[in-house]
Amino acid sequence: MKTGLKRVPVANEYELLRISDGDIKMVVYKSGKLVHNGSEETLKVIRYILQREFDYDYLVGSDEVGKGEWYGPLVVVCVALTPNQLLRFRELGVQDSKLLSKNQIKRLAAILDSETNRSRREVILMPETYNELYEKFKIEGKSLNDMLAWAHEVAINGALALVSPKKPKVVIDKFDEKKMDLQIERYSIKQPGQVIIQKSRGETEVPVAVASIIAKNLFETRVDELERRFNIKLRNHLPRDLKSSILPYVAKLHFKNVKDALI
Question: Is pLDDT above 50 for 1?
Answer without folding.
Answer: no
